[in-house]
Fold these 4 entries.
Entry 1:
Amino acid sequence: MRNSLKVAKWEIKRNMTNKSFIISLLSTPVIFLAFLFIPMLFDKSNSEENVSVYLYDELGIWNEVQEVVNESEINNWTLMQTKIQEAEMQNDLPDMEQSVYIALTEAGLEQGQIKMYMSDDLDKLSPYEASILEQPLRQLQLERLGLSEIQKETIANQVSVVPVSVDEAEAKGVALGEADPLKRIIPGAFAGVILFSIVMTGMMIFQSASQEKKEKVAEIILSSLTPVELMQGKIIGYFILGITQVIVWLAVALPAIMWRFELPLMEYLLVPELFLLLFIAFAGYLLFAAIFVAIGSTVEDMTATSNFQGMVIMLPFLPLIFIGPILADPSGVIAQVGSFIPVTAPAILLLRLSLLEEWPWVEIGIAVVILVISIWLFMKLAGKIFKTGILMYGKNATPKEIWKWMWA
Amino acid sequence: MTNVLTVKNLGKSFKLKQIIKNISFDVRKGEIMAILGPNGAGKSTTIRTIMGIMYPDEGSIEFNGHAENEIPRQKIGYLPEERGLYKNVKVMDMILYLADLKDYPKKKAKERALSYLAKFGLEGKDKVSVEELSKGMGQKVQFIASIIHEPELLILDEPFSGLDPVSQETFKQEIRELANNGTAILLSSHQMNVVEELCDRLYMIHRGEKVIYGAMEDVKNEYANFKCTIKGQNPITLLETIPNVLRIEQNGDVTVLYLTQDVIVPLWLRKLPEQLTVQELSIDKISLHEIFIDIATDQHQLPEGVGSHA
């Protein structure tokens, strides 16, 4: 283990002083922040500009409209009453700037369509802004029908249909519609980001093992330690590099997201479930690291490699093909099968656990046991492939050769 | 001299093919021992097995009293035939990493590295990236890395390949110095003149088996008979009348006569026929190079004794 740690330390040092690693480490959060804030700057420049909203109030709901707008999040509207008729305003508006004319007319109410005219420089209002007047107009309609307060309230309350399975209803005994989806999604997404980042860094193990072969350093190194120690050292080293990368990224991304979306991220994250999610993410790394290190040791020249190695490298992306069906039904057959296949299990489990309100513990248990056994088996086989492959200079191994080494 | 490394009846097979068989030798403290043989003879397999990179199917390896599974690898230095260095790291970092793997103190390693770099004409290259070094410079750094931890046993597989004559001389001097300071050295090389000059003993291997084993002088005395090279047009019928000749090689007007082991040169010279055309004549001993070629090409035409076990 001491030798493995020496290798890990070396791999960390080698990458941390490598320009391309440092650039990727620092540029990713910068790009993330740019994606987050640049659209905001444009949004702000548009939204901050004041919009003059002219109301032609034939219906007498000026006060209600004022009240609704004041209570809303719209803070760039200047409401003004106007006596100008619809037809006249249509002529004037093209010459005006940042202006909206809303014709609250009896005819419009009768037809169920209130027209909103905008000056040329305004493309469109957001759906929220456009719908802000719907409530006072609806209220007026109901009043005119002469309904009682109870009748009005009953109509105002919408009826929604919520699917509830018998088990869940019995177990929880509460309305599921009240559950906060972010409670599951945020820890799941967090673990997903970690899985993605460390698996991506893990891909560097492939390059590292392949480089060891290409540059013929393996034999010198193996005169001081065993192939398994070298392999373990690489896996540990790149795990730490991956985690460092994630920490740097998250240290930038989390506060930015919290500030931008005003989300209490820490409350969502610091839950016991996060431990299981992180365990799955780390298990996923170990599984793919074993695959990458083994395959890397069989490849000297990536450009001349067979499709086989290329396909193996793409394995972490396999769960992508299941995403559609899983989003449609996180408890469906495809989701269940995907949870039991080792290479798809980590990503699929994280996705499912982010979507499911009630976790299927038995399935999770079986999937985790399969995953842990697979990691053990993959590591053993990787050790065998690595031991032979790393010293086979001058050529890429064929799938047939790799198969033989695995069972030698 | 005490044995540092003892190899007994080593055997290794790949699939059904036996690569090495019954390989037995020892390397003593302060000596330079050569392991020779044509390509594919099994030298590198023997060396890799000693280094624990491969596991032997048969036989045993003992290093300073330690059995093969307890060998302290940090006491052994190794320069493999297929060698290289990480490209994108600094020379000093590379050497220090390899020293660290051998559990050698960093400070001491740094001092030694700087002194060796200076000795090999690489002064000031410690902070240079490995990829900026020439092939020869890279070889020197690899050599430094193999001896940085003051090994008790140094295994050098083809240390001179790719080196210019000046660098070869530097390497030879350093190897000699290490041996004089007590390091046991096992060296494999195809350059027989270097082996002849440098090594105390040799072990020649062919098709995975021992063919010659002994001290350099003994081997030379035992196997290296005299040969007579004559320049001049001479018919083969005439040459065949000359006594004590084992084999005749004719190439144009140059004839080489391989003589028997018991020949007494002055007496033999007197027996040469008077009709012999002699423009030039020289008598010298068969070199290690010729013994090697003979074995490697399976000619076995050299005088008796050569090719048999020591």
Entry 2:
Amino acid sequence: MIRFVAVRLLRALVTIFAVVTFAFVVLRMSGDPAQVMLGPDVPQEAVDAFRRSWGLDQPLWVQYLAYVKSIFTGDFGVSMRDKASALDLVLQRVPATLQLTLPALLLKLVLGIPAGVYAALHRQSFADRGVILLAVLGFTIPSFVMGLLLVLIFAVILGVLPSGGQDTWVHGILPTITMSIGGIGILARFSRSAMIEVMGQPYIRTASAKGLKWPDVVWNHALPNAAVPIVTIVGFMVGSLIAGAVVVESIFSWPGIGRLLIVSVGNRDLAVVQCILLIIAATMVVSNLVVDLLYGWLDPRLRSNAAH
Amino acid sequence: MDRASSNLVELRGLKVAFDGVRVLHGIDLNVGRGEAVGLVGESGCGKSVTWLAALGLLPGKASVTGSVRLDGQELVGGPREVYEQVRGGRIAMIFQDPSSSLNPVLRIGRQIVEALSLHRGLRGDPARREALRLLDMVGIPDARRRFDLYPHEFSGGQCQRLMIAMALAGEPDLLIADEPTTALDATIQAQILDLLIQLRAETGMATVFISHDLGAVSQVCERVCVMYAGRIVEEGSVAQLFSEPRHPYTRGLFDAIPRIDGPRHRLIPIPGTVPNPRHLPEGCSFSPRCFRAVEACRSERPALETSADGRQLACLRPVPANEPVERRTRVIEDMLQ
């Protein structure tokens, strides 16, 4: 068990390291922060001075080594724009993003899973077809289209909800719904197919043959088995709690991490972008690790495989 | 009391169709109290479907008509609660693939205790004690220590023992064993058969043994039904059918078994395969594969009738008593050419 976690943690570190390296290289290859920050009509001396002060005049590998070293001491750099600690800037935005993504995750879970399970248990019924249709619509319509559609209906035509900003909780309603619709569809689809697969297994017939009442067959025998594939998808969703809001935050002018990322990429604010990517990678990796541990808890067969 | 009511279970005209395709064409079958009945036939002939239908265990798209009476009480068309009380409590069923018939994420102790609390209201310590007694009875060694293990930590044969323990938990009057040894290797098969025979002697419960292994059927059962393409074609005592099979299909099943005693001769296969239920041949369903079929067999379907010796037979040209094997071999070799 400890060995299992240790191996996973090591792999996780390698993943994070790869993401950080990739971001570091691509950001520096794809544009000059000095040009972007200072504007086009600045004298060459000013540009050189800027580069020197941020260490951009050094060879790439020297910059990289310095960057990695500072990360290990907990220093994530300083924003070129705000001259403030990049980590502080990013962490300030985390609550705003979670204000959208956590309720959205909750909606996905409480609507998506029951809808999928219900559809599986009433296969080929009107409700089943309805769930499939809505689910496909939900996850095929891109979130920017869905967001604009909802703004059009609820803000412009009906005028009942605000179209952007973060003043009150009411402002969070449209972005939360926009963000959750795709996930509800995906979870409904996955829960349905997982449940259909499990309901066809011999042990479900055994449970019925034993004389168990139908709800007990579903709750005690089918759902625990269907949980494994569902948990996989939920794991992805938890992993994208931080990163998943980029598009929606932009549409609804929500001051979260996603907007900070877009603005910072535009400004080539290297330290901030790298810090955000690092945090996103870390949440993904941690949620994957938790999912792996949950597998073992949910399915005893995997537990004994991992031990060997 | 009339004769009929002395039977534990009576199937009358039991028919099953999947999406409009009929797979069971009216099964009449009695199971007496404490009796052991064998149901034999090739895969897909409706042996399992008969009993899954009787217990209401077929998927919703299956339409089941006819009559299934348990102690005179009609089950077909009844509410779910009736079936739920019968299943496990009056009629228990064990299946072909024991390893996948146990829930992989639940401890085996819990799965047995579940049946005990359902049918005998046992909970807590008494339930655990009774479950351990059952595990002991079906021959699970060291049950106390293995009570909290999961199914994948047991072998296939042990899983079937666990299934049997679970079936016994409700103290049923009838145990349906649906090919209980097919997925197991030969030595384990023999052990499970012995266990079934021994448990029937100890508990007095009736047994329906579904199998395509005639040897196993003869060990366990007193009476045998031979099924073909959703119908019973011959029924009689084990002694009758084994010494003198009259239906050409029954005869074919015997000729296809290797023998370890007597002189060596080639096994005689039954030519062809079981017909698709969508396209059953006219007349007798077995006629295209039958070595005794005549023109009438292809247009007229024989009814199941009681013969002089008491067996039931559905055949226009049954095998004459004591026909030598050699003659058959020649006829079949002609057919295969």
Entry 3:
Amino acid sequence: MPLLELEDVEARYGAVQALHGITLDVGERQVVSVLGANGAGKTTTLRAISGTVRRSGGLRFDGKTLPRSPEAVARLGIAHVPEGRGTFAELSVDENLKLGAYTRRDRSGYASDYEELLKHFPWLAERRDQQAGTLSGGEQQMLALARAFMARPRLILVDEPSLGLAPLIVKQLFDVLRAWIDEHGMSALVVEQNANVALEHSERGYVLEVGRVAVEGTADELRGNESVRRSYLGY
Amino acid sequence: MADVLQQVVSGIASGGVYALLALALVLIYRSTGVVNFAQGEMAMFSTFVCWELLDRGLPYWVAFFLTLAISFVGGVLIERLVIHTVSRSQALTVVTVTIGLLILLNGAAAWIWKGEQRTLENPFPSDTFDVGGVVIAAQDLGIIGVSLAIVLVLWAFFQRTRVGLALRAAALNPASSRLHGVRVSWMLALGWGLAAVLGAVAGILVAPTQGSFDQNLMLPVLIFAFAAAVLGGLDSPIGAVVGGVVLGVVLNLVGAYIDFFADLRLPAALLLILGILLLRPNGLFGRSVVKRV
């Protein structure tokens, strides 16, 4: 049984329908990417899962229907790294991380996860008391991932981590995401414009077009698909 | 000089009360985004609750803490039952609702307690101390001590506890907070509960200094608290405390040395509010919101 299953999910913003029946799944310990052009419904798909947009259809997590409110979804073990990174700009880096771990009760686990985090993001140590809003875009994206990690979720939803970042930082972000997920047996659903780097770090992928799944397959299948290659991989 | 210092100490005492109520205003402003015009009346109502408990024979500190507990529940209920239902409306609608609450609470208190003058027990002795020629009233020290203790407890709650952090986060970035599992709407209710507790302490401290009180006890105090909050910056807790103390000291000093000023304290406070809003709308400690994209 897959960890996350979406079946014919629809969502709308007021009168505008953004999803016209999305069906996808994410297995245990998998990284799955969602590709597609602007306005294809990638962000809305993540928002439908986390409950930040009104949706209908079948949404099951670990076999159970997903609740509607974002806080309830988060408490089930789904961490959403949203568009815009969700930084608590006025709070310190340390407080941001503590908020990431808000749903957790084990203090010792928090401390050991923090130590592990420092291996990937050593700069966090010296910025611990700095206001998060003063971090660079790349650092804020890393902090957003770090907050999600600190919740020890079973599934991480990541919305366009590459947006506005230099290629080297994008690669580093994906490497850390992949490493953390493999290490802790989590899964991830990643929305990405940069199809190359996303597929390189994923088992499978979906290509969305105007609110529907146009193509799906393993990362290799998608890379081999003529139209996907031309439209999204650029060669 | 001794005389001036004396006025400063009693100024700090009245400023402490303004600071508590100003903190309550800031707390709600930061979480709900509106100025709670009913804050003073909530405090007045709590003061009557305390008077009622004492009148029924409870020991002072039992009545005091019971009043705080009742006020907390009352604040939470007001948010859940009234404010929450209009929370999706424009700020103006919410403000109007708080003005409605002001009138409702004032009327309810007048009805329940017959609009008569009541006297609230003074927890502090009427002694005075002579410190190097400066005469300090025990009551002023008591008020300063209680205010300071409340401010410190509140600070520790916000800075040192998990729920305090979640409350701050919910006010700063509700959408992101929800994604981290913070029940934002309950955090708002918690904020209203805490604000009600702050108001209750302010009311209970200020009532004995007035001799007797009725349902209009907090109307002037709210104006001073509002002036203090605006002076410090409506979104700054530190600003509210500093603003309250500064306002208390300045009003007291000027009132003591300029005869006719005693009657002009309220208009002066209103003028101060107007002046700050015109010249420095963020107050001394408030920050203008600059968003990094």
Entry 4:
Amino acid sequence: MKIGIVTFPGSNCDHDVYHVVKHACGAPAEYVWHKDRLPAGLDAVILPGGFSYGDYLRCGALARFSPVMEDVVEFAKQGRPVLGICNGFQILCESGLLPGVLMRNASLKFICRDVTLRVEGGETPLTRGLAGQTLTMPVAHAEGNYFADAETLDRLEGEGSVLFRYVGGAPNGAARDIAGICGGPRRNVVGLMPHPERAAEAILGRDDGRRLFESLLS
Amino acid sequence: MAKKARVYVTLKRGVLDPQGSAVNRALHAMGYGEVSDVRLGKYIEVTIDEKAPEAEERRRLEEMCKKLLANTVIEDFRIEL
């Protein structure tokens, strides 16, 4: 199981994700520069967090047009796993691989703290055997306020595509307390605002996030 | 010849605008009680080469808005040529 981690100008969680996949989970990982194409032989692609293109215009709006994204869209359409974390989630929404948009937090403040998530919905590559469980990991964002029209939200709920919900209310104003969703032809595209890679080793305080990576790698 | 197109990107009606609400509250605190609502948007100047008929310019600007300048899930846009 080989994981490709895309680095955009301004990505800053790519090394954390690489460390967790390669060193904490012991799986092969490689960086993919946003101007390159996806190398052959990848089993999953991760769009990490950060501030691609300085968040200019809208978060993720410019990254979506990086050359690598053509391949990522194709990879996703083939039903292969694509995970977007934080800014990666914003890029997936901007590129149309996932519905909705991440707006400015209702408080207008950058929020950096641990949150507890409930895993819901149908199974995905990231959440095998985890439905119904709660996981704690940090959020760190100013634009995590998930929005979609009521019809889209109802559809997502109906299909079991709401994957992660904040327990005790969304810190950022997200519709229906949504922290992460899935899409794609085989529920293979997953986006979430919290950072599982920052809670993946007990020595660093928590390892709930590692369970998502272990699911992806299994 | 270059000409300037003006693009206004605004939040759709019904989409909450916490920045606008904060500015609204600040204006009230400053004594401008007549203000009942504030909505923030973006103003974008796009300088283009004047070589296509205006209808074509407009069509291409609309395409730019739909593809990049606005996120039509939450935003409307208006183009002035």
